[in-house]
Amino acid sequence: AFVCELDQLGLSGQCVSGDPIADFAPGSFSVGNGQYQLSWDTDGPETGRFNTNRFYRLNVTVGDQVVGSIDLDPQNPNGPGQSNADAYAFRVGETIPIKVWLGLEVLCTGQGFVTECITGAIIDQTGASLALTSNGPQLGLDVSPNSLPGSTPVVTAVLERIDPALYLQLTGEECIPLFDAPQFGQCFRITTYPDIPDGSLVNPALVSICETTSSFGLTPAQQSTLNMIRYEAGTYEALVDAVGNCPVQTAGMLPVPEGGIARFAAQGLNQIAAWLMPQQAHAQVQRPIRLGAFTSSFSNFRFALPGVMIPTDGVGAVIQDGAPNVIDASVTVRDYLGNPVPGAMVDFSTADGTPSPTTATTGSDGVARTQWTVDVSSPGTKTLTASALGLVSVSPPDEQSNAGFLATESVTIDVTVVGPPAALTQNPTGTLSGTAGTPVGDLSVTVFDDAGNPISGAGVTWTGDGTVVGGTTTGSDGSATGTWTLGQTSGPNTVTANVGSLSVDFTANGAAGPAVTPTYSTVPPSGTAGLGLPPITVTVVDQFGNPREGDAVTWTVTSGGGSISASSTATGADGTSAVTWTLGQAVGSNALRVEVAGPTQPFTQDFTVQGLVGAAVQPVTTTGDGQTGTVGQPLASPLTILVTDQFGNPRAGEDVSWSDGASTTTVPTDASGLSSYSWTLGTVAGSQSASASVGSFSPVSFTATANPGAAANLASSGAGGTYPIGSTVSDLQITVTDAFGNPVPGDAVSWVVTGGGGSIVGDATTDAAGVATGAWTLGSIPGLNTATASVGVLTADFNATGECFPGYGVAQVDGTFDPTEWACASSFDFDANISGGSTPATVFWQNDGDNLYMAVRVLQSSLDKVNTLRIDIDSDGDGTAERNDDVIGVDDETGFFDRYLTQRCVNSGQASCGNDDTSTDGAGTVDNDGTYTVFELVHPLNSGESTDLAVGTGDTFGFFLSLQSGNGAQGNTQVPAFRVYQDFTVVGF
User: Fold this and answer.
1) Between residues 450 and 414, the one the model is more confident about
2) Is residue 15 part of a domain?
3) Same domain, 455 and 330
4) Residue where a domain stops, chosen among 300, 325, 342
């Protein structure tokens, strides 16, 4: 058996042998071109052979496993006689969705009743589509390896036959009758017979064209003609055979020339079976012959319905005034299927010039060509007509218009001849407004010839500001319209439309476009704190650099203090706006934010400037002035000055010259603006000064009081000579100085007598000059006196020699012998003959200028009974005892006695004789201390009595001393024993 598939209107196709269903190989297929529908039908001529309730099932399998299926009802489920409501009506143009394993969507698509061979499955992102192809109704799908893990299974859709019979019904809204017979109605049926015997290639497949109604019939007078154009010359045999109740009639051989027509005619037939058979074989089979039915003839002869002719080259050409007037013109001839028709003859004719050639044959590409010399003597539309030979329609004898696919027998090619331009109008005529560099609108010009007719195809050139896109050639209405984009520079714009010597001007004002990122003048990275920077300028332009006027600018100091000259400004005509930024007075970071109004949001720019310290101002003292220290030593606190700018910001690195009179040192200021100097005071005590100098500023002065240092030197003066014993030496002085010779005041002074007796008093501390004075009373014993003045570990020694002096007397007649009282007395030792024995004794005498003091100390604790000391004085110093010589003495019974020698005493030579003076002048005592017996007496040198001693300073006189004891012994002790008198010289004061 053979299963043959239809091409459009059955003019070509393919047959395969074997079971019409089961022998199909796996694959996919589509049906038709979408104009027809394909459905299952059980209502055939041999109804009794088939089960009208049978249907087909489409199974989807993966490997050996069926994963989905759908039933295809041979009847429309929505029509009469529905036998299976769950089945699907398989129709051309519809898509049957089939859910398959792994989520792929299998689509079975049918289009018309023309099939095309498609290899493999068609898969897209929305799902898989399976189309029925000439390879058979078994559908195949290869799943992409990217979609499945592991091996790639083959997913197939298999159409299983349930009923052995298959009827294909051609249906559609507009049926194409193969024979032009209105009574055929709108539909016809083509039936296939699966039981056609094998090996019947010599017999063509039957094409049944039978009217289904009883009223159908062709009278012998009615002849239906089927016109077909073949591609190749040859002789064909036409056979009209009986099918069913249709009688058999043979048409015989039909020679068909190249490009000719094979015509079939039948008369008085209810049903016509027609086929064509080539008289001789030709080249390799390309496609089978299809004659509106299935055929088993394999040949490369192809038939087509009446074709179409399409103008190609030269259509719409425009010949400008004075331009070449020869153009290439061509038409393309194609059949209904769109295939080029070679060998068709085309005639070219025109009243507007000359074509060459006038007749051309289409080549293999279906194109016929000519060159047309166009008559350009007058402007307007020129027409060339192309007519094809053999492109005829199926038409009845009365030339009734065919409602089907009629042949296109002629086409025209129009060109335009343009006359010279004579007038030019413009639109619009006013001044436009827009934005620089952007389209401002459409400009239109219309070109007319002398007669006022619009000229199409006239070339228009545009010159001036900006650009005009389009509008380079006028259209059929003589107009050309272009879009004007203004120049990139804002301001007036002019563009001129030129057509030959004609021109018109268009004007527009181009404003600056939207602002782009503003630019700024250079802002220095740093400036002086508290002072203004150079003006900061912002420039606002559009994308082409056109300045924008009136844009708002906001200036905000965001940190660092300071100020700006204006917080809100607007750009001027030059697109700029400027302010002065005064930095904050404190050193440090300053920030300014600038916001410029933008098309959608403000443009923001932040500036950061470091505020630097300004110029120095007059330095000031911070610490160290007015201190008190020690000479040669650093002060307790350094001297410090502060150097700042006018706002108090410290200036670092300023050279400060420090001078203290002895040296000059430079100490730069530190980060805090401070310069410190450790001042070591000079060696001179008292007020000292130092200064700090910075540049040309007035020096900063410092004063300090330099106290002397610790006592280091002790100088002394005074004493060092010979002084009366017991006298006071008042010129003692010490001077305490430090290591630099500065007087040291206030140091404690210790005055100590270290030898010779006496006493010393002095200042307890040194005075402001470092001086302390003392008064030294020498000891009463002649000889060396020593004393010391001490200040700390420093000492000064004083020496003085105490000596006796004339008239010195300090003795006290009190019965107690004080050696210091008699230190300056003249004395000598002698042996006193007391009671027959020799007893050591010493006599002392001295005067104080007024009195004579005398004492005798005898080394004997007591004398017997009466102890008497008598002194006879040689008043006149002549060495002789004379009358009235003064006699004084003392005893322990009567005390002091004052006498004078009488003549009797002188004459007798007795020392004990004498008379008492009328008055007693003097005093005397006798006492003993357990070791010595001491006699002391005092007598005026000049009492005024005639018998008393009357001497003056420098007078020398003698005396005679005798001791008598109360035991009555008469022995006298002469002092000294070898002379009668001892000299006594009165010393003066």
Assistant:
1) 414
2) no
3) no
4) 300
d(CA 813, CA 264): 209
Residue 813 · residue 924 · CB < 8 Å:
yes
Helix, strand, or coil (residue 906): helix
Query: Is there a cis peptide before residue 439, judged by omega within 30 degrees of 0?
Result: no
Which domain range does residue 747 map to?
713-803
Look at residue 207 and tell me if it is in a domain: yes
Residue 800 · residue 719 · CB < 8 Å: yes
Do residues 272 and 232 share a domain? yes
DSSP assignment, residue 554?
E
Give the CATH number for residue 383.
Answer: 2.60.40.10
Strands (E), 453-587: 461-464, 467-470, 479-485, 491-499, 502-511, 519-520, 526-528, 536-539, 552-559, 563-564, 568-570, 576-579, 581-582
140, 197: one domain:
no
Torsion of Cα atoms, 337 then 340 then 344 then 348, to 10°? 110
DSSP 322: T
Any idea what DSSP says for residue 904? H
Question: What's the burial of 364, exposed, middle or buried (CB within 10 Å: 0-12/13-18/19+)?
Answer: exposed
What total of structural domains would you count in the chain?
Answer: 8
Indicate whether 16 belongs to any domain. no
Tokens 């499945």 belong to residue = 148
Residues in the chain: 989
For residue 249 the two structure tokens come to 């009639």
* CA pair distance 911, 897, nearest whole angstrom: 14
Query: What CATH number corresponds to the domain at position 966?
Result: 2.60.40.1190
Judge if 349 and 443 occupy the same domain: no
Instruction: Tell me: do 905 and 842 sit in the same domain.
Output: yes
In this prediction, residues 575-604 reach a mean pLDDT of: 95
At 913, the pLDDT band (50, 70, 90 cuts) reads: low
Are the C-beta atoms of 845 and 826 separated by less than 8 Å? yes
Q: Give pLDDT tens digits for 69-121.
A: 444 444 444 443 444 444 444 433 333 333 232 222 222 232 222 222 222 22
The per-residue pLDDT for 966 is: 56
Does the pLDDT of residue 878 top 70, yes or no? yes
Domain membership of residue 810 (yes or no) is no
Instruction: Point out the least confidently predicted range of 272-276, 319-323, 796-800, 972-976.
Output: 272-276
Instruction: Give Cβ neighbours of residue 527 (< 8 Å, ≥ 6 apart).
Output: 533, 583, 590, 609, 610, 611, 612
Question: Do 731 and 874 fall within a single domain?
Answer: no
Poorest-pLDDT segment among 16-30, 338-352, 654-668: 16-30
* Residue, of 778 and 109, whose pLDDT is higher: 778
From the number of C-beta atoms within 10 Å of its C-beta (0-12, 13-18, 19+), residue 823 rates as buried
Average pLDDT over residues 845-871: 78
- pLDDT tens per residue, range 657-675: 999 988 999 999 999 999 9
| φ, ψ dihedrals at 821, nearest 5° | -75, -25
Question: Which among 245, 275, 300 is the end of a domain?
Answer: 300
d(CA 610, CA 649): 13
159 and 171, same domain (yes or no): no
Pair (443, 493) in one structural domain: yes
Distance CA 171, CA 37 (A): 6
